[in-house]
Design a protein that fits this description.
This protein is an alpha+beta fold and 353 residues long. Helices cover 40% and strands 20% of the residues. The structure holds zinc ion (2 copies).
């Protein structure tokens, strides 16, 4: 009797995670590195996330899955790895935040967004250097030194498709004493703006965003307030898309290969030559730049707990703590099982093994 292997496997259903889109874009990246003569890098990116191991609900494959393992390339421009880094960064920020508040409940967070005017790609490298040096000068100001006990700062770069220019900016969570808001160390929004204009030497800047984390309100809704606040902070590095999320989700459901004519991606262009030019400039602009940085008391706690951040080479890119504790489905409470998914180019999607 001949037993034929039945095809019972399933496509990886995506919901919010656009695994199949990311994988296709990372293939374009591999091709681009190859065009730039960076063969080793190309091969590493080409093999990124060919396998993904998920914890999946036994009752429904539609219920949220939890990534347990995968082979990731860790390239800075790789969309898959960028997502993983952000998730990991998020988890570390939350952990640090909770540890800080456990040790000293009197501390509070304020969130600061600092921008400079958009620049063409040619000027991105010098502008990133400029914004990071300006941040350093800001933190060295005696007014900041007195008020700020620690910080996490991230660098995010967004691309404006209409104007074809780039927008590097800083998100920072600052640790202040509980008494800060009523003390003489309190820094008003207008003063933040003034100081930012001074350290950047750009009086034309008219915006800074500074807000206080309001634990009480959000705690009522049953949501960890740190979770909401740090979400913004974790979107560091290059923001890939300027097209609406729904559009991407639609593309993701199509299960047919996307082509390089797709609009709205930060570095993907119609021609391989043009794409290569942009990728090379981005690589250069980001070279040896710490996209995330810790200071003061948060730096101390991070070191003490031996936490690795999104910048560390040997980071596993898996949010393992939560994977361990979440062994029940978050929707139905059912048991979770392990399922391997393999990338299949012909259907431009992942298929379970
Ligand atoms: Zn990757
Ligand atoms: Zn379930």
């Amino acid at each position: 009797m001949v037993l034929s292997k039945s095809r019972t496997g399933k496509l990886l259903s995506n919901r919010k995670k656009l695994w199949n889109i990311w994988k296709q874009i990372s293939k374009f990246l591999a091709e681009t590195y190859s065009n730039l003569g960076q063969e080793k890098r190309a091969q590493r990116v080409e093999k990124c996330a060919t396998y993904l191991l998920f914890l999946q609900c036994q009752n429904s494959s539609e219920h949220p899955k939890k990534l347990k393992a995968g082979n990731f390339c860790r390239d800075r421009l790789c969309p898959q790895c960028q997502q993983r880094r952000s998730a990991k960064q998020f988890a570390i920020s939350i952990q640090l935040g909770h540890e800080l508040l456990k040790r000293n409940p009197k501390y509070q967070f304020i969130f600061l967004t600092l921008t400079v005017p958009n620049v063409p790609l040619e000027d991105l490298k010098t502008t990133i250097a400029h914004i990071l040096a300006s941040w350093h000068r800001l933190m060295m100001r005696s007014q900041c030194k007195k008020a700020v006990k620690g910080f996490i700062r991230t660098l995010e770069i967004t691309y404006n498709r209409e104007r074809d220019d780039w927008h590097p900016h800083i998100h920072a969570a600052l640790v202040v004493q509980h008494s800060y808001f009523t003390s003489r160390y309190y820094i008003k929004r207008d003063r933040w703006l003034e100081m930012w204009q001074e350290v950047t030497k750009q009086p034309e800047i008219t915006q800074v965003d500074v807000r206080k984390l309001k634990p009480k309100q959000e705690a009522i809704a049953g949501i960890d307030p740190l979770l909401l606040a740090f979400a913004e902070l974790s979107k560091y590095s290059i923001k890939d898309w300027s097209i609406p999320r729904q559009e991407l989700e639609r593309l993701s459901r199509d299960s047919k290969p996307i082509d390089r004519h797709i609009k709205g991606h930060a570095w993907l262009r119609k021609s391989p030559q043009e794409t290569a030019k942009i990728v090379k400039k981005l690589q250069n602009a980001l070279q040896r730049r710490n996209l995330v940085h810790y200071g003061g008391i948060l730096k101390d706690i991070k070191r003490e707990l031996k936490l690795k951040d999104g910048e560390d080479e040997d980071l596993d890119l898996i949010n393992s703590d939560r994977a361990k504790t979440q062994c029940q489905c978050s929707i139905c409470g059912g048991n979770m099982k392990e399922i391997w998914y393999q990338w299949q180019q012909t259907i431009a999607n992942y298929h379970s093994l």
